[in-house]
Amino acid sequence: MSPAETSRATETVPVIGPGHSMSSVTNKISSIVLTQKTPLSWYIGFAIAFGLMQLLLVSIVYLLVAGVGVWGLNVPVAWGLAIVNFVWWVGIGHAGTLISAILLLLRQQWRTSINRFAEAMTLFAVACAGLFPLLHLGRPQYFYWLMPYPSTMGVWPQFRSPLVWDVFAVSTYATVSLLFWYVGLIPDMATLRDRSRNRFARAIYGILAMGWRGSARHWRRYEQAYLLLAGLATPLVISVHSVVSFDFAVSLLPGWHATIFPPYFVAGAIFSGFAMVLTLAIPLRAVYGLQDFVTMRHIENMAKIMLVSGLIVCYGYGMEAFTGWYGGHDLEMFVMSNRAFGPYAPYYWALIFCNVGVTQLLWFKKIRTSVPILFVVALVANVGMWLERFIIVVTSLHRDFLPSSWDMYTPTFWDWSLYFGTIGLFFSLLFLFIRFLPMISIFEMRELLHDVESEGTADAHD
Amino acid sequence: MSLPESTRTRLNQMIAMAVTTGLAAGVICLIGWIADGTQFHRSYLIGILFWTGLSLGALGVLMLHYLVDGNWGHAVVRYLEASARLLPPLGLLALPLGFGLQEIYVWADPVRVLGDPLLQHKLPYLNPGSFVLRYAAYFVIWSTLAFAVGYRRGPGLNQVDPGGKEGRGALCAIGLVVFVVTGTFAAIDWLMSLEPHWFSTIYGCMILMGMVLAGFAFVVAAACRMSRHLEGIPVIPAAALNDLGSLLFAFVMIWAYLTFSQFLLIWSANIVEETTWYFARLDGGWQTFGILLAVFHFAVPFVLLLSRELKRSARRLGSVASVLVTMHLVELIWLVVPAFHAGHLRIHWLDLMAPLAVGGLWFAGFLWQLSSRPPTKLEGVPA
Amino acid sequence: MPMTEAARIHGVLAEFDSPEALLQATRKAASAGFTEVEAYTPYPVHGLADSLGFTRTGIPALVFTGGLIGCISGYLLQYWVSVHAYPINVGGRPLHSWPSFIPVTFETTVLCAALFAVLGMLGLNGLPMPYHPVFNIPQFERASQDRFFLYILSRDEKFDLRETRRFLENLKPREVFDVPE
Predict the structure, then answer these.
(1) DSSP H or E segment with residue C10
(2) Strand order in the sheet with C148-153
(3) Domain assignments of chain A as residue spans, ordered by start
(4) Which residue intervals of chain C are DSSP H helices?
(5) A451 touches chain C (CB under 8 A)
């Protein structure tokens, strides 16, 4: 039974708007890159993002000159905003590869029009995430000490530490996501090469297309490799945020050492990732007139996934609170009450409002299908997930086992400037991606169009 | 819609056999009760939990199927329903446990609680009264869900109804939330509180996942066997088998992920309050159970289910699923018995007799449900 | 056909409008006895590779091998580093802390399998390949957009420029091109 039929039998809202042909799809998507006049909003957006990115550069330079003391870190809160932001960005970086991989395995056709830019979003978010632990090292120039290599010092990484696992997890994730994204791009590069009338662009796209001709044998290997990559990427996504959660949970600190952390972190990552995809997709489809490709069905499905992952996050909060009491451990109970009623209580209740409260709106179809409200809900979720990481990192550390070392943590200007700087980096990369690469997979849209048009004949191929 | 005479006769024979086995094993268990009440209750807990786990897991998968409207579920939906609909009788069969709470759970013994500050702290949650109340609530909720999600008003039993989809989707979404919450607390009540000092936040979803895996594996095994051997029950097409196998594969991975996460975190942190649970289960012979689980609950099914050819053969997929069901019993014994015999392997014959007694009756009910609501071909499902 | 002309011609290319037409043409070419046949499409067309007699890609075996290599070498690296090269006591944990080695082993498994999948796919496909004779045909640029091409190579034993051309023209393509070397 063909995938086309599956979706036909079960869904009524189309995954592609009516009246499109193979050449109109190709035209519409590739023209954004090749021929269309770049909209003014692109220039304005890119200018703002690029400006913010300069803030990042300034922050990094100042940090390298003056040292991590410019941040608000202290002992006991040695992990401040740097780690909060790392986890936040890595989390956002989870939706792209997951959307692409899991939905491919589940034969969900609605993935086609959102997978490309979701994957790009993953790469850029991981790039932003990777900056933080490196800069947090204090002496980032020695980052390569984290890798196992035969050094003259005779020193090797300590493989019982989750921080070393993290190096492997995040770098593997970045590599595999890049491969997955690039492999998906190859046939579209060939399209751009063949459509472009500019010699320079032709040469660049030609090099990137690596001589792709669309041979049937090549397609067969290509599809198989792509499917297997998806099969590998799916558990990889889960493992990466699990390893991030191990950074906390392997320790002995109350509020960090909880066995629920791996699945709860993964759910949080998916939640924030889908929130970010919606935050980006909603304005993009409006500016570039892509409502035919990113239809209401996509928007609603993403909202549903946000709801499911958000509920798992709520389950995590609930289990932490219940076990905090049930365990009967003084410190565990103290951490729980300190979160809710201690000095950072406003942040905690803001987080509960964002992630537990606002998320419940997604139960209603009216909200899921109302684009402006959904945009606000997604923004709130992004804020909520940032607050969650802030609460986890800061409240557990600032009241540790020794009351004599208790302290408060206040981020400084340079903490914030680095954070907003990475947002600038993220959006600069995203704007460049939109301008120079097809943000929707053209060949998959052609395939989708063919499947949807001729479901009768598509059946014969399977 | 109705089954051929030969199948009907065969099913009736099997039901009679199952009832006889169940009753005979039940009588032996009763003798065990008289001889050693403590042991009986502890073993009977295993018997009840094993089969409740299968039914509960089937209920979860059933709601998941209705919620996402996956094609994979059509081939096994009757089996899932047959299994989930046995939750009410299971609730009644569990009643004898009420007579022996003190012999199973330390916290149910007022004398032990008096001398233990931690148990006194937990008294508002862990006490016989609220335990029984919660137990009743779980079974009422699950039974209601089991019958509500399978309920059809308009079209016949064997039609996929596009009309009722929207309402049932919402019911199943809320039902799944309720399922996860009640399942978590049931796991804490019945299993985690066997060692009332110990706690783990992942425990509820880990246990629930084991039940979902086993409940689904049982249904797959049953569907594969019955569709091959009984006339009139439609053969499951290879593509559907492939999907069932893939879902089983995903469940195996998630179960292993949750189980290993708990182990790794407790092993690494090495705090005495937590490690006791694993010391009880990985010492004095119990480690063979741990290895058995790692090999046959994860490694072997994982490798086998990678193969597309295997997933497309009803016989072989059924065998893998049967192994997983068996391993669920091994897991349950490994979860329960070391709570009483920490660090030395000791399995009583009642530990196996009790699951057999409950199982005989359960299986008879399962077959009876299937013969009255047979898994014939659904109309409106693309082959 | 004189040798000189055959040497200059790499093959004959026929352009079709739809995947169905191409699929039919490919099957006819196979039943006519052509063995050196290629088909070019703007998206993967199911059944096309089969009709070219191409069924086993070798990719799954490659990926499995890659995964196995990554798994074993990842674990052995950690074992060797922690037990032999740099043994240190961390909180009394054993040098050979197998549970701690699982996450990294998993990552190296996935990494190697993914690298094998991508590099294997490119390698077996002979990519990157900057030059190919079919690129000489201007209309071929639509192979990456909305047209479907059948290509019979001159190294096919049955190849004869005029006969092959006529054969392709009979399949009712939009156009037939001679592709120079």
Answers:
(1) strand C9-16
(2) C37-40, C148-153, C9-16, C175-180
(3) 3-144+233-450
(4) 3-8, 19-31, 48-51, 59-79, 98-125, 161-170
(5) no
Domain boundary among C104, C124, C144: C124
Number of Cβ within a 10 Å radius of residue A67: 11
**What are the φ/ψ torsions at residue C148 (nearest 5 degrees)?**
-125, 130
The C-alpha of B262 sits at a distance from chain A's nearest C-alpha, in angstroms, of 5
- Residues forming beta bridges with residue C153, ordered by sequence position: C11
pLDDT for B378 equals: 56
Overall size of chain B counted in residues: 383
The answer to whether residue A205 neighbours chain C at the CB level (below 8 Å) is: no
- Percent of chain A exceeding pLDDT 90 equals 49
Cα–Cα dist B28/B40, whole Å:
10
The secondary element (H helix, E strand) that includes residue A211 is: none
> Which carries the bigger pLDDT value, residue B164 or residue B350?
B350
pLDDT in tens, A283-311: 888 887 778 778 888 888 889 999 999 99
Number of domains in chain C: 2
Judge contact between B336 and B46, C-beta under 8 A. yes
* Cα–Cα distance for residue pair A213/C38, rounded to 1 Å: 11
CA torsion sign for B319, B324, B327, B332 is negative
- The arithmetic mean of pLDDT across residues A53-66, rounded, is 94
> For the residues B351-357, what does the mean pLDDT come to?
93
Distance in angstroms (rounded) separating the CA atoms of residues A432 and A46: 8
Which residues, in sequence order, are CB contacts of A327 under 8 Å at separation 6+?
A: A333, B199, B273
| A191 vs C contacts (CB less than 8 Å) | 42, 144-145
Portion of chain C with pLDDT greater than 90, in percent:
31
* Structure confidence at residue B144 as a pLDDT band (50, 70, 90): very high
Contact A26 C47 (CB under 8 A): no
Higher per-residue pLDDT: C119 or A462: C119
Least confident interval from A2-6, A441-445, B42-46? A2-6
How many CA within 13 A on the CB side of residue B188?
25
**DSSP characters over B31-98:** HHHHH-HHHHHHHHHHHHHHHHHHHHHHHHHHHHHHHHT-GGGTTTHHHHHHHHTTHHHHHHHTGGGG
Residue A375: band (very low, low, confident or very high) from pLDDT cuts 50, 70, 90: very high
Q: Which tokens sit at C106? A: 């998993």
| pLDDT at A360 (0 to 100) | 93
Q: Bridge-partner residues for C178, per DSSP?
A: C12
Which residues of chain C from 22 to 81 reach within 8 Å of chain B, CB to CB?
none
Are the C-beta atoms of residues C156 and C36 closer than 8 Å to each other? yes
CB contacts under 8 A, B 232-261 vs C, are 260
State the helix-helix crossing angle for B238-269 and A216-249, rounded to 10 degrees.
Answer: 30
Handedness of CA A45, A50, A53, A55 (dihedral sign): negative
What is the structure's pLDDT at C1?
43
Which residues of B fall within a CB distance of 8 Å from A9?
Answer: 382
Say if residue C167 is in the same domain as residue C137: yes
CA nearest A253: which of B201, B271, B200? B271
pLDDT at A287: 83
Q: Where are the domains of chain B?
A: 5-373
Last residue of one domain, picked from the residues C80, C98, C124: C124
Tens digits of residue pLDDT in C52-85: 877 788 889 999 999 999 999 999 999 999 999 9
Containing structural domain, residue C161: 3-55+131-180
DSSP string, B343-368: TS----THHHHHHHHHHHHHHHHHHH
Helices assigned H by DSSP within B191-237: 203-229
Cross-strand partners of C177: C13
